[in-house]
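W.,

You were right to be curious about this one. When I first looked at the sequence I had no strong expectations either way, so I just let the prediction run and decided to look at it fresh. Below is the sequence, 449 residues in total, followed by the output.
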Amino acid sequence: MRMMLTGAGAVGECILKVLKKRDPKGEWLEYVLITDYSKERAKEVLEHMEHWPGADAEKKRERPDIGTEAKDGRKAVIYEAARVDAHEKPELIRLIKEYRIDFVVDAASPFVSNYIFDAACEAGASYVNLGTWSVPREHPEFGTGFEGSYTEPMTKYNFDRHEQWREKGLTACICLGIDPGVVNVFAKYAAEYLFDELLEVHVKDGGNLQAPDAGKDTVRFGFNVWTVLDEVMNPNAEWSEEEGFRIEDAFAGEEEFRMPDPFGVNRLVKVEHEEVVTMPRYLRKYGLKKASFKIALDDNLLTALKVINALGLRSTHPVEVDGVTYYHTTSIAAIKNPNVTASDKQNVAEVKDATLVGPGNAAAVAQHLYNYYAKRDRQKIKLVMNGEKPGDHIAAATPWGSVMDGYISSMHIVLSGIAAAKCEVVGMDVETVGNPEMRMSGEFMAGAV
């Protein structure tokens, strides 16, 4: 199996470690491409898997050593790392095809899951994910049915494309986590082997984990912050045969529930979770009449989420201050070198938290930055000083007959008859030395230091 992991977070890394334990001899897991928005994080996970393949992995697109024997007699599972923005479906398709991937594991945030899902189908790879994406309405109408609260409820996007996957002869399994996932298997097993009739399934997710460094006022999210905000504060659902799906506002159904020892009493609330959709879909034939999901949130987190909700701080709508409308948006404008492939060594320059950049000028700003970083160079030169100091913007001749326009990043002064300096200049070549309009700083001496 040639697998691509999208999303190299804690869960993605755990998946790889489980696979490694399940197939210690590499009998069926042949190759893993670890992808993430952060190339550094993907490499970190690769190193944790103790299969860092060295510089060759950065240069070779096709690894000739796939399936060869390791020193201890095992087949060597090959791990490689690549950066990908999972919003970019064409890039996902390219990676799947270029690396001959036949199985995609989606461990990324839910808001990109549909892109990965579609890319796998179009590229001809089987697929699994841990959860699905849903789109709530701006002003939900609570009550019976998803229609008034969601434009696209959880799992609908995936099930609507069942025939498309079937026609291609591909398999896609959604919701393969603990919950949803393992709890669904437990419920199906109970329906098949433990009960004559299964009437109700109520999933209650709790525990007794404590962060050792947490103070009495510390807010701990427990897992991905964005996912917590999304599933806890979206309209939640429960299902009954009599009423169908009942949709309520965030924090509904709060209760204290005693778990078996040693977990004790957990404070639970209803949240949006796929079990209330998938269990009725597959367990009604066993007599299922009710299904719900609640999760435990510690008191500090629950209070913090209620404050965020009450103040409207989760809203993506514009805010007006002194007559000026402000939009909080985060988007990515990227310029890619068409000659660089995913197997080449990546040299990614990121500029984050940019201000005064919007849809109207983002592309131009990105192009300007790309041009700068593509041409940027670092040279060590000698010059006769004329008042220059570190940080100054200068134009200096290089030993190769060009002029570098840049800034002095460091300077080592030598006093011997004349005031000379050994400087490191960061900038880019702009003109030839013969350009009479280019002001030269100091007097170029000879040779790079």
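Here's what jumped out at me. The CA atoms of residues 77 and 84 lie 22 Å apart. And, maybe more interesting for your project: The two ends are 52 Å apart (CA to CA).

Coffee later to discuss?

I.
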